[in-house]
Amino acid sequence: MGWLGRRQAVATAPETGVVLDLSGPRLRRAFQDLAASAEPTGGVSRYVTALMLKSALFQELLGQGAVRDLSPAAFLDLAAFIAPVRRRIGAALAEEGFERIKLALMHLLDGDPGAGPVDDRLRVFCAAFPQDKAHRWVRDLGAEVLHFTDPERIPLMTRWIWDARVGTGALREIWHADDVDLARIDADDGQRSFDTLSVELIGFLASEGVYRDLPFAVDLLLAHVYAGYINDRGGQYLRSDFTSDTDPMHHTRRMLGLDAVDTETGRTRLRLIDGKPHVLSGLPDPEVSNAHS
Fold first, then answer.
1. Separation of alpha carbons 115 and 140, rounded Å
2. Is 61 a residue whose pLDDT tops 70?
3. Is the CB of residue 261 less than 8 Å from the CB of residue 280?
4. Which of 269, 272, 274, 267 is nearest to 256 (CA)?
5. Mean pLDDT of 96-114
6. Cβ-count burial of 247 within 10 angstroms (0-12 exposed, 13-18 middle, 19+ buried)?
7. Average pLDDT score over residue span 101-111
8. Which of 100, 127, 140, 197 is deepest in the core (most CB within 10 A)?
9. Sequence ranges of the domains in the chain
């Protein structure tokens, strides 16, 4: 497999004080299924590369103060690569206005030098918008922006990985329990929980011979875990953005936003308020959705 590399020193995060009881057998099954499922569309390394390119795009448009110069078109380019955001952002822009969203992003990334704790920044970001069902996507936007602009330091903290409010996400699907649906998981949705999950999965991947591009390998494994939940149970979370598909990587790509663009037309899955698709503005494209065609 292309993602197996020579052994390298694996960075270890500081002790978080959080204990997660993960299931080794469930992780191995997911890992093996990911490798087999990705093979027909270029292998796991192709998806990891796509995530690296997505991160490069986020860093170019948002990192190192670039967020201050973010344009509406560039923001839509980014939003197209975040599945729960692209379904809502057309209406949100019409209601909230771009400048409000941009200001919130500036505070999230560029507010205080060195910024405050990630949890505080994300909480303030979410509080800048209405606290209702129609704005749950805000958490995912903030989480993806933080992670993909600084993937080595900040884990991906989206709701599909773990939503403590309702107790759902990929974390539950790899929990050590006879019946994961009934298991009690005492983990909040703060950075310490996600840091612990990331460290545990990095250790697991290392035991399986994966030593390269670990933040993105973790993202991919978790996305495939949750995609399995969608495939097996027809889950309701984000279901309106998913359709049945015989491609075993279909939902995995969707969770990570890697199905964003039609490479022939540049049209994205993001719909503007008038119903028209947003067309990518010529930036680097981490699209891999046509790999199986």
1. 19
2. yes
3. yes
4. 269
5. 84
6. middle
7. 89
8. 197
9. 24-279
Is residue 170 within 8 A of residue 20, CB to CB? The reply is: no
Per the CB < 8 A criterion, the answer to whether 111 and 128 are in contact is no
What count of residues does the chain have?
293
pLDDT digits (tens, 9 = 90+) for 15-26: 667 889 999 999
Spatial distance between the Cα atoms of 54 and 246, rounded to a whole number of angstroms? 25
| Three-state SS sequence of the chain | CCCCCCCCCCCCCCCCCCCCCECHHHHHHHHHHHHHHHHHHCCHHHHHHHHHHHHHHHHHHHHHHHHHHCCHHHHHHHHCCCHHHHCCHHHHHHHHCHHHHHHHHHHHHHCCCCCCCHHHHHHHHHHCCCCCHHHCHHHHHHHHHHHHHCCCCCCCCCCCCCECCCCECHHHHCECCCCCCCCCCCCCCCHHHHHHHHHHHHHHHHHCCCCCCHHHHHHHHHHHHHHHHHHHHCCCCCHHHCCCCCCCCHHHHHHHCCCCECCCCCEEEEECCCCCEEECCCCCCCCCCCCCC
Q: What is the pLDDT of residues 131-181, one digit of tens each?
A: 999 999 999 999 999 999 999 999 999 999 999 999 999 999 999 999 998
Instruction: Considering only CA atoms, give the Rg of the chain.
Output: 18
